[in-house]
Amino acid sequence: MHLKYESQLREPLVYGTKTYHDVTEDIVRPIEAKPSKLWYIGFYIAVALLLFGVYALYRDVTYGIGQWNLNKTIGWGWDITNFVWWVGIGHAGTLISAILLLFRQGWRTGVNRAAEAMTIFAVMCAGQFPIWHMGRVWMAFFVLPYANTRGPLWVNFNSPLLWDVFAISTYFTVSLLFWYSGLLPDLATVRDRAKTKLRKHLYGIASFGWTGSTKHWQRHESLSLVLAGLSTPLVLSVHTIVSFDFATSVVPGWHTTIFPPYFVAGAIFSGFAMVQTLMVIIRKVFGMEDYITMGHIEAMNKVIVLTGSIVGVAYLTELFMGWYSQNKYEGYTFWYSRANLFSPYGWSYWGMMACNVLSPQIFWFRKMRRNLFVTFFMSVIVNIGMWFERFVIIVTSLYRDYLPSAWSVYYSPTIWEIGFYTGTFGLFFTCFFLFAKYFPVIAIAEIKYVLKTTGESYKDKMGHLEHVPAEVFAHSGHGHTVVENESTN
Amino acid sequence: MAKKKFVVGCFNDEAVLFPAVKKVRTAGYKIHDVYTPFAVHGLDHALGLRETSLHTAGFIYGITGTSTALGCISWILTYDWPLNIGGKPHFALPAWIPITFELTVLFAAVGMVLTFCYLCQLSPFIKKHHFHARATDDLFVMVIETTDKTNVDDLTSFLSNAGAVETDVQIAEAGWWLGRYDKDEVPFQNKIVAA
């Protein structure tokens, strides 16, 4: 049984008069057409950034990470800031596909595929930072627990940094599996429409020989549901563990119990902002306005204002605790190193406050939530703000902690640190451009699944049911599909 | 592997498909499968398929992950190479929860996806017979297996009457890569429900 009727009060999720075939046509069109000039320009810029990042890393390996401006006091700088930033961005994809699936939020179908892809690419970018930050990157496999030739000297399972290794790699694997298992039916759709032999062959390989058998769909549904159930605590655990990297230390500014929920809210916040950035572009470039509707954009903006406000409460709580604890080191970190605009890094704290807490409040207004330009602008602002947040947490806590003799001079990144960061942008967008060209950016099968309940034309046809008395409505089978002949095995 | 003859009926609306499934099954025909472009809820029940046990497999993989993590970590940190970390206990269960949780999820997810691929016989480079190219686009393709006694023409017109927009007869190897089809194991229990 599934819901067959949806209230007219709810906005349609698919606009226009569409049949199943139209849905296929609309979503597969960008894959079958030649890429536009804009695509090439974007792709080449992304590849250029990626290549610069590769060169920066080549230098890192050759000369060591001494070419970064890290020092003994500020041992984590841009690298870990960027790591946490990318991981945070990665959270929205899983949130949309898993948590919203469990909550039966129909609007996820329009955006989940691209958001999941974004997750995977963002986690790929995030993973680069701890790996190359190791310096002797050829020793990276030392983080794996295996019976090695050093004793065997095992890794320290009590260390949050090792938890992170497990968390991030599990997160990447599970997201990839979730994304790809969802892609199989859609890749099969592309395969069965293919005009050339090569295309048919390649999509045939990629779609694993999917046929659409009822039994396979039944298992597929079960798989998606369980994977969603697993991913939901997983996504919360990942950023919790990332926050443990800080919270289990004794550094003032890091040693706080509020970190796990605060980090998770921040991750959702920045992730949704990145989804908005990409969605606003995708719907425009691919003409997918019927599928990624203003309703979708508005729903995500609501999440942004909610999580932005949660993050704001967390900032204020930290400030309060900095005073209330009467711990002078904490007080110094929160009230001098951060909240004082005229301290060396005060600009980053207030940049964070302005971008993350103040500006998203604009989304309390429906007009703003449904304004594409404001949405796009704000999505970029939020991600800048969330970058500031990680920078604030890491650098302002480290640069002046306990002994003034250990205090650091002002830290600013070298071109190679910046190059590494822009390189991950290159990686992210290279992957995303390829994804947008060769994969269905919207989950075709899932749109078809909701089409007849939430499609505009279908909703219109059911409008008269609003006036049917409740008693009649409930018993006439409008609410649910009545499955006849249900066997009970 | 043996080839069989199938009668294919294509429907373009799930509202027509459901009564048709009922009619076909009541008439005593053996539905090989229905290929649909998306998950049509309730169709599995209408076809008399049993519930999948994939989630049970997932649970078993999950607890395998839990016990692997707990077993390995406790063996390593208390027996194989006890590390003195600030004088803290060797058996530090709370500190192992994150990794235990991650491995539970990892084992369950990987195990389930592999099981799913195995059960559905999905893999790169696999060649399957596709009864209709639009089964992944907009058609609900009902495939009925025939026997020597089946009157194909009757069945074809029966399907048309039931609302099929397109009918077809195909001789196909609908078998699976491990040849289970040859042993006449159909992928679902084809119980005929009395009308």
Protein model, in words:
The complex is a heterodimer of chains A (489) and B (195). Chain A is built from 17 helices and no strands. Chain A has 489 residues and is mainly alpha-helical. Chain A has a single domain (20-140, 155-474), classed as Formate dehydrogenase/DMSO reductase domain (Formate dehydrogenase/DMSO reductase fold). Chain A starts with 19 loop residues before the first helix and ends in a 14-residue tail after the last helix. Chain B is α+β, with helices and mostly antiparallel strands. Chain B folds into two domains: 4-50 and 140-183, 2-Layer Sandwich (Alpha-Beta Plaits), CATH 3.30.70; 54-119, no CATH class. In chain B, 42% of the residues lie in helices and 14% in strands. Chain B contains five helices and four strands; from the N terminus they run E-H-E-H-H-H-E-H-E. The model of chain B is unreliable at 179-187 (pLDDT under 50). Classes of the chains: A mainly alpha (489), B alpha+beta (195). At the A-B interface, helix 1, helix 5, helix 6, helix 7 and helix 15 of A face helix 1, strand 2, helix 2, helix 3 and helix 4 of B.
Brief synopsis:
The complex is a heterodimer of chains A (489) and B (195). With 489 residues, chain A is mostly helical.
